[in-house]
Amino acid sequence: MAGNYRNEASGGGGRGKSVVRWDCGRRESYCGYCRSPNLSRVSHGLRMQSLTVDDYQDLLDRGWRRSGSLLYKPDMSSTCCPSYTIRLRAADFSPSKEQNRVRKRMERFLDGTLDTKAKYELLEDLSTPKVACECECHGRSSLATVEPSVDKEEDKNEPEQFMHYLSDAIDKAVHTCIESERFPANLQLPKASVKGVSPTKKKKKLVKGLENLSYTSNIAFQLAATLRRARSEKKDEKQSEFSGNSAEDQLPSELPPQTIGEKLAQSLSQIGETSGLLIHACDGHLNFYSVAEHTSAEKSGQEKSLSKESLTRSGNKRGCMVRCCNCCTEKRRKLEILLKRSTFDPEEYELYRRYQLKVHNDDPDHVTESSYRRFLVDTPLVFVPSTGDGSVPPCGFGSFHQSYVIDGRLVAVGVVDILPKCLSSKYLFWDPDFAFLSLGKYSALQEISWVKENQVHCPSLQYYYLGYYIHSCSKMRYKAAYWPSELLCPLHYQWVPFDIAKPLLDRSKYVVLSDYKDQDEKPLLPPASNHISEHQHEESEHKNSNDLLVGDEEIFYLEEEDSDVESESESSDVELSETEDSEIGNTLIGLQESRLRYKDLRGAFDPGKQRYLEAQVQRYVRVVGRELSERMVYSLG
Asked: I want to staple 629 with a disulfide (CB 3.0 to 4.6 A). Which of 219, 362, 388, 621 is the partner?
């Protein structure tokens, strides 16, 4: 090869250089979202030797994500489950009622006022008002049980909160039935709605022997109708499988509401045991009966007497009962949130392993130290230290682990990338013993707050990237609850408000979103429902189930035995016509120790190799864009 080719100077503004070590090409693999038995997930992969934070920011804004040192991008027009990059401007974030509850639940836990004996919020915790109790013997404020009739406005809201809690519990039970293959897995299922039962209606729904019916839900009828419609649609399409799940063959041809109600009641039995509720299915209705009301008149009278005697001083109408809560004897817990650069930590690995085994039910042989390192520790990102001039936050840019430590115990680790415009959330794993704290949601709120706080130090840092949003997978829709979010157009790479994108995605899995960007001039409104799946950050717990569950979109290992790569001849025939020669001439090529522009390499190879190389470069430029191809080094060895 001639020696007169010019050598490109290295650099990159002092932030290093991005080097593509291996172009994996177009791959087909099994999909963890729709669980199709076919190789239906189509994506393009790049194995990186190094990657600057600026280049990765631009790649994110073209639909790429990373798993370890591997970059991958779904082929949106042909993959089974199109994955749209989703982001949120942190300064505009408007938390929902559910998200505020998660934050307050953590505060109560740290204060020692949250009942931690049960893994769910119990009836007493949600239906009984709490007020500050000045306990002189302990010298500090705590929360205590009060007379329910003292504050009418607060009492009015408590039943609604408890019905919301029951609705969430039913939704979790539905997901449990899906995971245990009792229900099909790829349907968009209705959200549960729980209603209070008035005295006049109780006689119509009572089960013999139970006289304290408090709440009821008709979710079983809604699920049955949804399943019936789906079966009818598939029958019309003459498809033999219902969801791509082998469990379909085990399902009866029809699931009546009575059967669904019984399955859900069985799944909810644990909640009934911990919250003092009796849960029964009656002719398809899911009924909740209060056991607490089966107390003797004598005991009830005693408690009322204690309540009246315990009203506090200074004319305060709100008081605490003599039977004060257990928090008065417990010290406040300390939560530390620590951010450090991505490195292997044995304690974090043990937590990750425990999380994968207990939450995801992974095979122990597959949860190894080497796989953990490849997935969550290894990173191609070139670290950029703080400069103090407002262009870089105090922690710097790069890959980090954000650990959550309560009283010295590691309870969760968030794996994130901090880039010039955003914090990109990659994965979260947590201690299963602390599932009641909804750490997936809590960590997301903390990461959003982190962006807001650090925007003062680095004005360009404005966004929170939540990974991929997959509308065709119901467990991945929780990300849209962080409002107001935007989705990336898969063709023109423009950001489109979610409320514009959602009705389009309801009709079609793949949509060129930017074509509809300006169709709606109405002001944005928050999502109508605050019911959020705790999958990825949590049910995957997905993130769950962290989702990732992820179900975790971030788990993406591109291995030869799991994927099919297109042939060289196919690449040549298809891609030569898709990219003009003028667009690939300045592509930066790494050859041995030199960095050259592709146009300077023409004629250096025999015709066969030249044609193959040109097809590879054209495909590469098409997936990363011309601007990035002129900055990143495309290595040929």
From this structure: 621
